Amino acid sequence: MTRDSYLFIGFLLLFAAVNAALLATGAIAADWTGFGVILAAGLTLSLYSFLYKDNPLYKFVEHLFVGVAAAYVLGLVWYNTLLAEIVNSLILGEGKDRWSLLMPSLLGALMLTRLVPRIAWLSRIAFAFVVGLGAGLTIPRYISSFILAQMEPSLRPITWSIEGLNLVIILVGVVAVMVYFFFSVEHTGVVGGVSKVGIWFLMISFGASFGYTVMARLSLLIGRTQFLLDDWLHVMK
Amino acid sequence: MKALDIDRRIIFIFVFLGVAIPLMVDFTLPIKPTPPVIAAYDAFEKVAAEKPGSTILLSFSYGASTAPEMQPMARAVLRHCFRLGFKVVAICLWPDGVGLAESVLAEVAEEMGKKEDVDYAFLGYKPGTIAVILNMGQDLHTAFPVDSKGVSLAQLPVTKNIHPLTDFSFVFDFAAGDSIEFWWIPYGQEKYRFPFAGGCTAVMAPDLFPFLQSGQMLGMLGGLAGAAEYETLIGHPGQATEGMRPQSVTHLIIIAFIILGNGMYFLSRRSSGQATG
Fold first, then answer.
1. A73 lies in the same domain as A102
2. Using CA atoms, how far apart are residues A100 and A81, in angstroms rounded to an integer?
3. Which is deepest, A88, B6, B94, B240, by most CB within 10 Å?
């Protein structure tokens, strides 16, 4: 047996011993809720075992997670949407305005024809509708929200205050970053200098994003560790 | 220069200890609310003063994978909303947010003595993202004919007089993905011009600062830190405040490793330069 095999067996024995002690002392109730806590703790530790090395236990739990997540969403979509709105409303005739569901249901069914190569061309009807509707809805909204509404703060009058300083920094940053991304002119001389300022702004923003990302990932680790230490092991005060 | 080849599992152990030990040892770190979180808090207070007892909309657009960040945030905001006397209508635009939304609503409502259907209503999940928002913009009863228990919205005291989105005095989205940036702002706030704020995971927060500056969002809670700041503002420390102790310690550990790594790198460059020079 390899060292990893001994580690694996040792982990299982330790996990079993800890749970036996927790059940014996009454820290975890010997009911379905307690079983759920033990199962969740085992699955959590199995996933974290990847940090040591990729292993079959991690792979099994990873696939289990994907399967359960997909099944959960399928169950929700079936009961909330397909059963409630199409089967019960359109087919069984419950609720008013049932015929307004006919065309959307037909378009949705046409999308599924992509699975059959001989009639896959029918799905283009549904996709054309989706693309056309999407473009018509999206373009004016995005221009309004992401371009016009974002330009307005850059165009406010500059004052001798912290707000004014913020505006100057934002203005310099916006112009410098846009110059950096303008590749039709060679980045030399004045253009090169301004684009270097733009690079600094980009790097500072990427650094801020990275810092936030680290905080986000740590928050998830903290959540899981809280579960392991409090709900499972009961060692937190 | 062996430090440059440090086994990453040693770093993992330090990070784990940096998380686990502060959770088990009780100490207090000051939490200073930042302007975006204060702005969100003030926005709720202002709406409560101008329209007491009005109805607000909370949208739960997150799942179990981001629950450690978002659930404490949702609890804090809900406590504040119920304390201010708002009626709350909750929806889900993410399918796996339904269970989480239901549990946090039930927990906080019981704690604050609020009754379902009278003080709050949960309408469940509806697929369609932007189509749902556009539909609600015209009539909430068309987008959600019944609540999560199958009761018609026309029969619920909380929702019977709410029709277009503008009937809500405030809309707040808990976002783990791009629901604020690509759904609520372009198709909701920008189109119907209702007061809007949001809470998001820390990963999303940098992307949403431009919307704070433009006034499209009145305030923002970013990640677990944002949730902890909001708990401080409402005077009810909870899970987020508890999570800031390991957060701070582990950040210091990571900074120490970054400084160590960069120091070793520059030393190795100097020593290799001396060797060749």
1. no
2. 15
3. B240
Restricting to A residues 83-142, those with a Cβ less than 8 Å away from any Cβ of B are: 95, 137-138, 141-142
Chain B residues whose beta carbon lies within 8 Å of the beta carbon of residue A135? none
Q: SS3 for B174-204, per residue?
A: EECCCHHHHHHHHHHHHHHCCCEEEEECCCC
Q: Looking at CA atoms only, how far is residue A183 from chain B in angstroms? A: 24
Q: What is the DSSP letter of A1?
A: -
Do residue A74 and residue A120 come from a single domain? no
Question: Both A58 and A88 in a single domain?
Answer: yes
Separation CA B145–CA B118 (nearest Å) = 17
A74 touches chain B (CB under 8 A): no
How confident is the model over A20-60, as pLDDT tens digits? 999 999 989 899 999 999 999 999 999 999 998 898 889 99
Residue A157 token pair = 């009058």
Asked whether residue A56 is assigned to any structural domain, the reply reads yes
- Model confidence pLDDT, tens digit, residues B48-63: 999 999 999 999 999 9
**Does residue A237 lie within any of the structural domains?**
no
The total number of structural domains that make up chain A: 3
Across the interface, whether the CB atoms of A219 and B242 are under 8 A apart is answered no
pTM score, whole prediction: 0.88
Question: Has residue A51 been placed in a domain?
Answer: yes
In the block, residue with structure tokens 């980045």: A187
Closest CA–CA distance from residue A154 to any residue of chain B (Å)? 9
Q: Does A81 lie at the interface with B, CB-CB under 8 angstroms?
A: yes
Task: Find, among B127, B133, B130, the residue nearest to B57 by Cα.
Answer: B133
Query: Hey, which residues 18-57 in chain A have their CB within 8 Å of chain B?
Result: 51-52
The alpha-carbon gap from A7 to the nearest alpha carbon of chain B, in Å, equals 15
Residue A116 DSSP one-character state: S
Are A150 and B214 within 8 A, CB to CB?
yes
A60, A92, A124 — which closes off a domain?
A92
Q: Which domain holds residue A192?
A: 158-232
Last residue of a domain, one of A70, A92, A114: A92
State the ipTM, two decimals: 0.85
Residue of A nearest to B245 (CA): A222
What is the distance between the alpha carbons of residues B147 and B124, in angstroms, rounded to a whole number?
A: 6
The residues of chain B scoring below 70 in pLDDT are 1-4, 273-277
| Together in a domain, A147 and A192 | no
Closest chain A residue by Cα to residue B18: A222
Mutate to test the interface with B, among A44, A170, A215 (most CBs of B within 10 A): A215
